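JOB MANIFEST
job_type = single_chain_structure
chain_count = 1
residues = 485
[input]
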Amino acid sequence: MPQVRISYFLLVCLSVILVLNGHRAHAQNRQKITRIQFRPENAKAGDVIPFYYKGEYHIFYMRNSSWGHIVSKDLVNWNELPDALAKGIDSLAPDGEGCWTGSIVENKGMFYLFYTGKNAADPKGDQKVMLATSKDLVQWTKEPSHTFYADGNIYWNKTINGKIDDKLIYHHQAFRDPDVFWNKEKNEWWMILHATVADQSFPATGLYISKDLINWRPSKPLVVYPVNTNVSGDCPFVFQSNGKWFLNFADYHYKTANRAEGPYDDQPREFDCGDLRVPKVMWDGRRNILMGWIADYEDNVDSGRISWGGTLCMPRELWTDSSGNEFQRPVKEVIESFRSLAIQRPQNFIREHVLKIPADYMFHAQLVAKTTDTKLVIRFPQTSRNDESDYHLKIDFTTKEIEMGSRYKSYKRVCDFDPRQAMDIRIFRLGDVLECFINDAWAFTMRAYKRESGKLTLIATEGTFKILRGEISEPRSAYSETISK
């Protein structure tokens, strides 16, 4: 009889060991390290919810109807973690069609994940605010008892206020994308979201207030937009910098105010140009780290139409000046992940210079125009001497207009640089994405499907220029690899 008990005990121990080893092997096989820009396997990455905690950069992102989750310690290598959320199983569940964008905060050791429950079949309303909680940022428990819908008094609720199809397009028939933050000036939690005013007339950035992250009361909107606005209103977020409050929203627009409650600027400004979508930031104690997604084109060709979802951009720093302008620059961790290749640099003012480039690279140059009427074009890769190179960056030192584009499209913006001073240019070509930064301030983002090595050519179509510094750099290692032991 003792032998039977011992054998049984050994059998249980062996089973436990096998199970633990199985879990460990599964976790190791699941880990994926992706260089700089993340994209889930066989899927697209959508709206990003960044969250920094104790030395780790967590990125939650939309993938179909779920919340994916990756984490990094260095903003270059990303480990893939289990999904944080999945849509409800019940066809009438508040999130039965999907778990849409939201935000995450921490309070007294508990993490609160606020998200949009989407289900047109929900008898109480299509879009609503839902809650999930966690103690480790990995395993999340939905809290359906804390779900709430638009109040119908300040914010429109279809079941209370009726249909508004004849007043607003569906995009603005919204009660979604909750962004929660602690307003230390008011000593309370604030939640802003894309909403509609109760009289059904205007889209708005709505506001709810709470003392405990559980009970929320509606307050008047931070911003009410014109009916015919070109601003999306989706995925708003608020942060404070340089004595001002910034209200950002998709795609890369923002308004400023002297107080969190406003009033905010009438006309929104832009802090990017091109294919960047729904960027958000996280504060790591030193800087605001921005992440967003870069839209795919249909059929994966440059001539295709833009579609939802794509590849996450490289981590960037969003910074502001004392005048309330937002700018971007690549984080130093990304720059340091490249190794420089030596290039020859002419000593005099020139009209043209040619560099060899690999398929993936960082081009960095500091150059100065001899006169303020200089016009410069950078073509990459340069396959012939005509204008039909695949991609280009054009700089007009007179109008201060900068354009990134291809033969199929172009993105332009006026950048307030000093044409008499040296200009700093960084162009990152990684995979099928171009990310460009001028003077570590003005950003351009573009999908670029044709990928090959060749030549990068700098040409002054008018005037001449001098290269003060120039380098081509390659990524230090492959973009992705799977850890399997």
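[summary]
Residues 1-33, 478-485 have pLDDT under 50 and may be disordered.
Residues 294 and 309 are 7 Å apart (CA to CA).
exit_status = 0
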